[in-house]
Amino acid sequence: MSDTPLILPIENPVLKVSDLHLYYGDSEALHGISMGFPARQVTALIGPSGCGKSTLLRCLNRMNDLIEGVRVTGSLQLDDIEINDPALDVIGLRRRVGMVFQKSNPFPKSVYENVVYGLRIAGVGDRAVLDEAVEKSLRSAGLWDEVKDRLAESALGLSGGQMQRLCIARAIAVNPGIILMDEPCSALDPRSTARVEDLIVELRENYTIIIVTHNMQQAARVSDLTAFLYEGHLVEYGPTKRLFTKPLSPKTEDYITGRFG
Amino acid sequence: MTPRVFQRNRRWDRLARWLISVGGVGVIGCVAVMLLLIVWMALPLFGKPHATEVVPAFTAPAGTPILAVGLDDNAEVGFTLGGDGFFQFLELRTGAVTARVPASPRAGKPGVKLTGVSAGRHLEYALAWDDGSWSLVRIAFRSSFETGRRQILHQVEILAEMPAAVTMPAGGAGQMRAGEKGGAVLVWLDPSGATFQVRRSVVKTDLLGNEETAMATYEIPVPAGSVTAFTVDLAGSTLYAGTADARLLRWNLGDDRAELLEQVRAFEDGRRITALGLVFGDVSLAVGDDRGGVSTWMPVALYGEGSSRRMELIHTLAAHASPVVEFPFVQSGKQLLSRSAAGLVRLDHMTSERKLLTLQGSQSLDAINISNRGDHLLALDRNGLLHLWDLDAPHAEISWKVLFGKVWYENYDRPALVWQSSAANDDAEPKFSFVPLIFGSLKATFYALFFAVPLALMGAIYTSQFTTPEVRGVVKPAVEIMAAVPSVVIGFLAALWLAPRVETAITGVFLFALILPVAFLLTLALWMAIRNTRLAKRVGRGFEFLPLIPVLILAGAAALALGPAVEKLLFAGDFKLWLFHTAGLRYDQRNSLIIAFALGFAVVPVIFTMAEDALSNVPNNLKAASLALGASRWQTVWRVILPSASPGVFAAVIIGFGRAVGETMIVLMATGNTPILDASPFNGMRTLSANIAVEIPEAPAGGTLFRLLFLSAVLLFLLTSVLNTAAELIRHRLRKKYGQF
Ligand SMILES: Nc1ncnc2c1ncn2[C@@H]1O[C@H](COP(=O)(O)OP(=O)(O)O)[C@@H](O)[C@H]1O
Ligand SMILES: [Mg+2]
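Above: the input entities. Below: the structure tokens describing the complete assembly.
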């Protein structure tokens, strides 16, 4: 028991975080996080509200740049590039690290245009390529059969669950290696949630997925690894099954047994 | 919540909803009432003319055949002129004869008779006596209050006498015009129709004050055809003749000879010209033919200024069913009175080509006279009955064609779209085309928006998407304060401060428009090169505009400094002169560029504020979604923010458009207010709104101009409301397409 580390070291991580500190102005939101994310696995970030899950996730594709007064120290290694390098081509990074948001946010465009948006801005204009990407992404997102006849219609006419899956399709259309998901099911009804969860499990074949959730059942259902964050600290990180059944840290145990959060 | 609180809230809700509905409906109601009121003021423009017989027809004074009739301005006193040379004055309401006055001392002598009468100016008659002599007489009416109530007094004035001459035996037709100091000219047509005789009496006063009358007579041979109708202008200096083979001839009547100015074939289809008359103003010639056709002609320099003038067909009016026999003189505007052989009388308006009234008596009307103001007509029919009509043909000069189409005005060489509501003399033809005014409104709007829309939209995009909330918090209120500047102040500054400065530095202004983008691009290139240096990093995100401010100032200074040199180099030292010589364009100080700046200044805040709101209201999560997909900030703005905000941005531009179209004070002050149809940026315009402001003080209430100004207000109202409605519809469709922002 004592030889099991609190923070599971990952071999050959696609993404490696070392001593990551993040400050919103003067207040420190992440206090030195170090962890690796394995390829083609689903990693869940859990923890009570406000513990820094979203903040950590946003570091991974530099979306924190959009927030005023954010300062980040430490290193974030994607393969061999340093994400935290100020000279980094953020656009290239974001093409490799896709993101799905808590509240589905399709563009007020057609279903088709939503899916190909990332390709279009990357300069892809070939109709055949786009058509293929649409079908492939929508199939991967399990949405093809439902929307194949209404590709030209506005995406805003889809149901909530369909919209969220469309956002996933949109993210995978640019073929990122990694997909970040920030509580993707929190606004969905149980049926839609189940579909998205199934989808995550399927996507695991081809993508590295990092998902934030405060629903522990969900983490247990979809993830291979789970990281427990608490007040900006990474408390425990390990295989999901083990973490939920035999948590090493008392804080983790308190959390998963529902004593707080 | 307890049921009572709940109920009370419900009551408040209902009250509030009711108040809001009442307010909304009230506002709509007010606007509708306003529109109704201005429509109401404009509506009489399209009233139908009508004529009513004031009194039942009554028998004319008995006696010799009646050769002419006439009436005073108030249609109270009328007269007849008999073949015995006596005027008989009568009260028109009762038919009672009040006086019998000889037209000349000659009248009343045994055996003396009139062989003919021709009417000239209003109430002026050339009388042909059977001894071959001629008299020119005028009836003068004046009001007197001596007896305590108003009385119309009459007087027969003899203007000129012309003794008989062997060359002009009794029986030919003649027209007489008064000259200076009792002089006169008589134009006499030989009964054969082949020659005219012109006699001119000139009264000369020598040093001792003795008057001496000199007579000059000359003959005018008619080159071809026989004359069937002729007329002389009021000054007695131009003779017009029409022939049986439809030729129109025009002579200049000199002191001792006539000069044939032209002869043209008016019709090629075998018509005979049967009547000629001059429309008030002596420019247009009315031509009547034996098929009842009525047209007007005037001399036009067809081949540009200075080329010789030729009679051209200008207006064709509705035709009579029988040959036209005369065009009695009308002194009220460009109306045309014509009488046909069948004794029908018609009133038309020349400019608008409107057929106003057709009058007929129980029998053919033989002698007619229209009052000075054109509101009454006295006519004698073949049964010897006198008819008195009250004529009401208001705003006869207005038709849709006049308002919106090209009209060939007097003294114009081609049909034109002109607004010129008033002129120095009352025989001028008013020109009421709305087109130059609408054009002016659109021109001002176009130039203003050309300047304001890019500026306001770019500003809105930058402020809402690229800069920091702090900067936005300063910029937005500052721009909104711009909107609070009264337009009088903007107009005043533009007219008196800006316009002269732009005029002197016009080359610099253009140079600035050229240098600024270049300087901007250079700065950008430089920026890209140094963006990763420490110095550049110190310029925070959202403050990128700061290094551009010196660039702007330097570019401006450079443009102004280089202006004179460039002007010397390219435009031989004087741009305005160069412009005039090479492009033929005049440079007015208060021109469309000034309007672009001034009106643009007024419109920028409107567009900026609304567009900025629309852009800021695009939810951040769309922006985030786009950025997370690897879009740059520009791509995000261009592909997501702008389309999503397009309904609002579009509405902003349209509201700006509406503001520019309706703006009055700035265009009033900062343009020359000349209603020209010219898109050149170097001259001004007159807009619909400024026109109302300029002309309403001079428009008598109820008059044509007054009502036309109301009509133009309706037009302005419709223009803006149609625009706004269209904008709202498009916005609705965009919103459906792009969601709720
Ligand atoms: N934009 C922001 N500005 C300032 N503080 C923030 C911002 N976003 C999050 N925080 C703070 O950072 C901490 C972590 O927040 P977050 O990452 O959103 O937590 P979680 O996603 O786990 O609920 C919280 O204390 C929150 O108040
Ligand atoms: Mg969160």
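Note for the figure: The radius of gyration of chain A is 18 Å.
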